[in-house]
Amino acid sequence: MSIEVKVPMLPESVADATVVAWHKKPGERVKRDDNLVDLETDKVVLEVPAPADGVMGDIVKQAGTVVKAGEILAHLDTDKEASMKPEQPSSPSPSAATPVSEKTKTADNSANLAGPAARRSAAEQGLPLENIQGSGKSGRVTRADIMQQTPTHEPQTPPNLSSRLSSDVTASESHASSERLEKRVPMTRLRARIAERLVAAQHNAAILTTFNEINLQKVIELRNLYKDSFEKRHGTRLGFMSFFTKAVIEALKRFPAVNASIDGNDVVYHSYFDIGIAVSTDRGLVVPILRDADRLSFADIEKTIANYGRKAKENQIAIEDMTGGTFTITNGGVFGSLLATPIINPPQSAILGMNKIEERPVAENGQIVIRPMMYVALSYDHRIIDGKESVSFLKTIKELLEDPSRLLIDV
Questions:
Q1: Minimal CA–CA distance to 1: which of 83, 67, 73?
Q2: What's the confidence (pLDDT) of residue 14?
Q3: Active site residues
Q4: Correct CATH for 207-409 of 1.20.1440.60, 3.20.20.70, 2.40.10.340, 3.30.559.10
């Protein structure tokens, strides 16, 4: 019997998707829940699993095709004879000690335990997934695992060929430079969506940015004092983001307009604190949400952020993870940014930009000392947030982080 493989129901507010890559070919044997194809929306990458065991039939929608929910992607032959048809194994090497069936099983497991980003990177590098040991959850192969397999050293050149190769390379480079090559690559749907939202934010909001700098000496001392016991007890690292998240929440409580949004002619004040944490992926920037972050402990915040980071690397962040949000924190410091002005994530009214921690001379009690300093930036919508509120909000974050004990006694 032939059954239809259809486009699943798409997330709310997503009208269509693009077929990115097929992972099974016509005539190839598949098992139930094997990932057949990746579909890219403007927010997430969706995997379409096989609905049953069988043999892959004809592919109706090729890579690059735009599809909608319910459309037929391919056909799957589930006849008993077809599903039991053995695959044609390649001739084993005389030195190979592993049976072909075991190799096939390993390959299948590796393919099933690899996300879209990992599979794409493996294909680009020409690396078989079955030969790669996964470091992700349940042995899942991540993109980082693929990149570790990429050779980093050039083969040595025999001395007697060095002069000839040098002249050939010089001629080749000269020829290549004279061609002035260009490469045109279509935007991913996520990148196009990011561009659309950022331009809309610039056009629709009166964005202004205020800056300050924070002395993180006490936060670092506190972190160094408890990081080992924290990790031992909670099973996760104590990072800086939990400190910033806690400080942001306290500041939002004191300045509700920064946690509000504009809806037409109305200002909507949120009594909850859903904090977006910007995460960079190969496809672009995504902003998963810490729901009710005011109710989360330091450990809960760190665990949730770490989980989002893992899911981002494997392109497994779901639409539900990114829906909503009342305020966003972005950290360009992990890439070396010293000072930057972030753009608001609409319909939110403000965003906090963190930057790199850099030791600088500062004045304390009339003396010059070296302290770990960070520039921070608050971009805000001036239609709803006044300058006094924005400056005071950022100053509150500075005071809370320069004396973290304030977070415990609420002062």
A1: 83
A2: 77
A3: 382, 386
A4: 3.30.559.10
